[in-house]
Structures are given as C-alpha cells and as structure tokens.
Amino acid sequence: MTLILSNDDVEKLLTMPDCIAALEEAYVEMAEGRGISRQRSDCITPTTYSDDAIYGLKSMDGVVPKLGVGAIRINSDIVTNPLVGNTRRRVKIPAAPNDRYVGLVLLFSTHNGEPLAIFPDGVLQRMRVGATNGLGVKYMARANAQTIGLLGSGWQAETQLTAACAVRDIRHIRCHSPTRANCEAFAARMSEQLGIPVEAVAQPEDAVKGVDIVMCGSNSLDPIFFQRWVEPGMHLSSIKKPEIEPAAIKAAHKVAVHTHDTSPILVVAKGANFRENTKEAGWNAANALDFKTFPALPQLIAGYVSGRDDDAQVTCFLNNLGLGYQFAAAGSVIYKRAVEAGAGHSLPTDWFTETVHP
Amino acid sequence: MTLILSNDDVEKLLTMPDCIAALEEAYVEMAEGRGISRQRSDCITPTTYSDDAIYGLKSMDGVVPKLGVGAIRINSDIVTNPLVGNTRRRVKIPAAPNDRYVGLVLLFSTHNGEPLAIFPDGVLQRMRVGATNGLGVKYMARANAQTIGLLGSGWQAETQLTAACAVRDIRHIRCHSPTRANCEAFAARMSEQLGIPVEAVAQPEDAVKGVDIVMCGSNSLDPIFFQRWVEPGMHLSSIKKPEIEPAAIKAAHKVAVHTHDTSPILVVAKGANFRENTKEAGWNAANALDFKTFPALPQLIAGYVSGRDDDAQVTCFLNNLGLGYQFAAAGSVIYKRAVEAGAGHSLPTDWFTETVHP
Q1: Counting C-beta atoms within 10 Å of the first and last residue's C-beta, which end of chain B has fewer, N or C?
Q2: In percent, how much of chain B has pLDDT > 70?
Q3: Half-sphere exposure (CA, 13 Å, Cβ side) for B10?
Q4: DSSP for residue A32
Q5: Is the per-residue pLDDT at A159 higher than 90?
Q6: Please, which pLDDT band fits residue A282 given cuts at 50, 70 and 90?
Q7: Strand-pair category, B54-64 with B172-176
C-alpha cells in the first residue's frame, strides 16, 4: 500500500527527538558521501491568479540509502510581493481550493523503488528547520547551556525552541518579537508546552542579554541580532542568512553552516513579475562571507571538525539553505511510525506504479 | 478533485495528433521564453536489491503557463548493467510490488497551484518521444514524403510510426531489427494499426534504401544508420544520439536537435556501482559535434529557422534529450480529456494540499 498522510498525521507521528535523531544519522551518511542531495530548483512563471503574482514550481531531492528512502519535495506556489511598510515581503497565497497551500513530499524505497508515502510538507518543513538548528545547538552550544533568548514568535519559532530543549537542559527562555500581543501569546503557549518559563520581553536586547543560546527564528530579511550584543560563551543560531549582523558572525570563534550546496537553480519565464530577493543578494555581496570556508553541519556531526573548544568561545550556526535530503531522513521515520500506527489513507501501490517500461 | 490516472487511461485519453498539437503549441511558448524547463537530475545510490544494482531517483520539471500547467516527472528506478553479448546494457528492473516499474507525473495548475492529476509516465514517455520526432518530420521532411524506413521494432518504435503518419501522408513502411521474429510481429501489428503496408525486411539497407524518411527507433548505443546509405532528399530521425553515424549527420544540409538543455545533473553516492554511459560520452568527444550550434526544435516551430529549403536537401533531427516540459504540455491534454470523460480515481484535493504554511 502507498500511504497518503496529512499534516495532522505527521504532527502526531514525528516527535522532535525522533526527527533530530534521523537527521543526525543522515548527516553522518552525507558527510561520508553515502547520502546525497540534489539542490533545489525553482521554475517561475506568470499566473492568471493576478498580475502581480507569480507561479513557482519548486523541487528538491535527497536519498539516504542507510534509511532506505529517497524523497522529493515539491511546492506549487502562488506568490505575491506586497509592500508592507517600507519592506517588500514575499507572501505565499493559499490559492488552491478551500484556501490551501500546495507542498508535497513523495517518499520512495531505495530497496525496490516503490512509492511508500505522499504527505504535505508544512509540518515537516518547520520541524526539519528546528531539528537542524537543534543539531547546531547540540554540536556547538555549551554543554551546560540553560537559557535561550529567542528573536521571533512566528511560524518557525516554536520548533526552534522544541529542538533546542531536546538537546540541552533548558531552564528559562526569553523571547521578543515586534508585535507584543503575538509574542505574549506565543510565550504563554510555549511555557505550557515546554513546562518551563517562557517570558515575553519588550526589547530584543532584553531577550538576549546574558543568555547561553541566542536563536533567531524570524522572517526578517534585515539583521535582528547585532555584534554589540555578543557575550562570551554564547551560541548564536539563525534560520536564514541576514538575521545575524555579519560583524557578529565574524566575531564568533567558530562558525558552521547547514550546507555547502549551491544556490537553487532558478529558471524564470518571460513575463513573470519576479523580484529577486535583493536584500539577501546584497547581504551576500556586501559582507564577503564565503560560506564555503565554514564547515557544514554534517562535518561537525561526523566529527571532522569541532563545534566548540571551550566554554568561553562564541559559536554561530547558520541554517543557510534547506535540503530535500532532510525530507528523506525525517520521512523515513514518519513512514515507519505511520505503518506501525495504521495511520493515513492506504491506496493500492499499483495506482502509483506501472507494468509499462518507463 | 485530484485525479489518479493509469497508463490505460492515458492511452485512451491522449491521441497522437493531440499530443503533437500540445507539444507544438508548448514549443512555441518555449521558443518565446514564456514556457520553461528544469533539466533532469539523477541521484544515484547503492540499493539492497542486489550488489550490482543501483537505485536512481530522477526528476525533471516544466511549466507551460499558456496551457495552465506545471509538471514534475519522477522516476524511482532499480537499474542493473548486465553484459549482453559484448555490450553492457542498462536494464531497469520492475522491482516494486507485483513486478512493477515506478515512474510518475504530477500535474499542477499554474492558475492556483492545485495538484490536478497524478499518473504513471510509461505510456506518455514513449508518446512524447514519438511526438517530438513527429514534429521533426513535420518541420524537416519533404512535404510529399510517403515512405519510411524504420530501424528498430522495440518499445519506442511504435510511436515513431504513429507520429510520422500523423504529420505526413505515409503510404508504405519498411522496418528492420536484429531479431527477425520480433520485427515481423511488429510489422504485422503496425500494418493493422496504421492501415498501410508495414514490411519487415532482412537487412537494414533494405529498410532504408530509397525511402523519404529514415527513423531510428532502437535502443542501440552504436550507430545503426551510416553515411553510405544517405540519399538526396532524405529526412533522418533519431531518438538518441549514437544511432546515426556522425558522418551521416555531417552530410545533412540541415540538422536540428530537440533541446539545448545541458546534460542531466548527476549526483552519485559513494558505493554506488554506477557505470557512466561511456559509449555515448565517447561518441560526443570523438565526433566533435557541438549540439549548441544546431537549432533546437522550438526554434524551427516558432519559425526562427527553416527545417528544409528544397526537396533535394538531406535533413536530420536528433532527439537528444527529454524534457519535463513535454510531460506538462501533453499532461494538460490528458487532464482535460480525463475530466471530460470522468476517467480515473478522484481523490479529494485536500489530501494533497494543506492549511499549514509550507
């Protein structure tokens, strides 16, 4: 049978510790060259949805033979670029029927090629981001780290905390985000979920002052953490490049990135109202940070390089780019747990295979 | 609803003339830069299937905004490389449950992103190859061409003939392939299907002598058509590079290729028993034919270049590489016809979409 799972299924089946463990094993495979990843590709065209929107068909592949799976993650997006204040934001529109987004993971067996499962990417998308930064914490933060300062309370913030709490004995968290009410609601929810105090604070400085781990989990394309806030022994963590001021990155004794994979393959059709993410592009050029010179997370996990030499060092982990590989690794756990639990809709595998030679 | 279609559905729903018309329209879009394609990628790893086998996860994307669709074609293959005689062959194993292959096309709407259909790639795979060479015939063969010499009687041969017969008033076909019995069975079947004489002949020279159109539709990695067989006014057609002797290609007045897309992105894991197709690689290097210098089929169809200037010219079309784009173009017709016919299994689109932001 081929399983069709929902985001609810994924949420119930995959715990953060399981997700972290699967990625950890998979990254060792990647460091050793036994696990492989194909960089993301974005095909961008006009859409009839609206004149200022674009259509994007995006895909990324990865195979983890040790876990017996290959995965392809596909996004079929309607995207607009509204001006919010002075900033142009990239906004995905839930334009599919019933106001829904379209992101899918297809999981295949490396043993016999069969399609094992199809499930939406939304819940796993943020879990794998969290798990990846969690592994950054595990391999780079002080072993005795107990406090987190979180910048951001949006859709990526939650899994940043659950992941960090899965790898360190965290006792206290402070968080800040621009809209006070959002931040307070987030803090209340996370306090209950994690069973430790999560405190909303009015200023970003208040969130990060004196903490062991700084986590940037925002959707900002401008720096939100600055060199002047760096303290000895801190671990800095970011889910995208521009969050941490380049001077702060340069001030760290150890810096690691998620991957050395190159930028996505970008194919843009004539007439597509496509705006390059100029802020991020500008950030790259202006700061002359060559990410290839930093070790990648798999190299840390496989033990080729150390993430930290002593408790006084400042460390920094930049989750610079996602990989289809992560969907394969975590997908292997989701599939296994789904089979055990009898979850999802079971469809005949014959519907997704063929007797005709392809 | 999202439709799950079978190869039988595809075969019933898509006629060769429809497939040719959809590709023709899509190629104009491509020539004008409005339709786009992402080159194929192959992720190759070991598999537990057997020591001498490899696992391959392959994908290619394409979007045709004018037809309202994007498509991704995925293959999840177990492949072996047995020695057959003196030649090492690349053999896909139907290793999935019930001895089946795994190749899928996912079709999405560029209007709202929704997943429209999922169907196996096998039937469409050979139809789009045939349709592409058919368009080569339409734009390069003599308008009064009436005879075809076909080399090959295997799984690609049939659609080569149906496509050519869809664009020219073909009256007589001769075919040759190494195993006489196969060739005779093929000839008998195609005679009935096409309603014109299809004659199996003992020697390749007999098949191609005096014909208007030579079609190579074999699985050979060695040349099967030679310069000494070229006659004035002939159109030469091939489904892969090495079939036509380079000297014969060079003897043609007009040569066109399917695409200028670069070779597939190849990512190979350590330990994969992967054999590069050295014959084809050697062919490229040895013959110094720079395919970028030949016009591509979309340029012919859009009228940027002519395929033939007079009836005496020898023309040559090389179907050098497939594109995900073809699956989008033909997929748009399959989907439209499937909706009209109420074909396939209808599943709730909500199963393949999400409320969670991806």
Answers
A1: N
A2: 96
A3: 25
A4: T
A5: yes
A6: low
A7: unpaired
Parts of chain B belonging to CATH 3.40.50.720: 126-318
On chain A, the residues whose CB falls within 8 A of the CB of B326 are none
Report which secondary-structure segment, H or E, holds B188. helix B180-194
| Under 8 Å between Cβ of A112 and B95 | yes
Res A292: pLDDT: 87
Class of domain B2-125+324-352 (CATH, top level): alpha beta
Helix ranges restricted to H, A49-203: 122-140, 157-167, 180-194
Q: List the structure tokens of A48.
A: 């009839």
- For residue range A27-76, what is the model confidence (pLDDT) as tens digits? 999 999 999 999 999 999 999 999 889 999 999 999 999 999 999 999 99
- One of 3.30.70.890, 3.40.50.720, 3.40.50.300, 3.40.109.30 is the CATH number of A126-318, namely 3.40.50.720
- Hey, of B3, B42, B77, B110, which one would you mutate to test binding to chain A, going by the most A CBs within 10 A of its CB? B110
Report chain B residues whose CB lies below 8 A from the CB of A77: 113, 358
The DSSP result for A169-202, as a single string, is: ---EEEEE-SSHHHHHHHHHHHHHHHTS-EEE-S
pTM comes to 0.95
Give, as one character, the DSSP assignment of residue B237: E
What is the length of chain B?
Answer: 358
Nearest CB among B34, B76, B155 relative to A271 is that of B34
* Alpha-carbon span A354 to B120, nearest angstrom: 6
- For B189-241, how does the pLDDT look when each residue is reduced to its tens digit (9 = 90+)? 999 999 999 999 999 999 999 999 999 999 887 899 999 999 999 999 999 87
- DSSP-based three-state secondary structure for B210: coil
CB B260 within 8 A of CB B340: no
How far is A299 from B39, CA to CA, in rounded Å?
29
Of A101, A109, A345, the CB nearest to B357: A101
Structure-token pair, residue B324: 């995900």
Q: Of A168-177, A280-289, B253-262, give the lowest mean pLDDT range.
A: A280-289
Q: Are B172 and B147 in contact (CB under 8 A)?
A: yes
Average pLDDT over residues B60-77: 98
CATH 3.30.1780.10 residue ranges of chain A are 2-124+324-352
- Classify burial at B249, counting beta carbons within 10 Å of its beta carbon; exposed 0-12, middle 13-18, buried 19 or more: buried
Superfamily in which the A2-124+324-352 domain is placed by CATH: ornithine cyclodeaminase, domain 1 (3.30.1780.10)
Smallest Cα–Cα separation from A122: which of A250, A255, A11, A261? A11
Q: What is the ipTM of this complex?
A: 0.95
Environment class of B341 (CB within 10 Å of its CB; exposed 0-12, middle 13-18, buried 19+): exposed
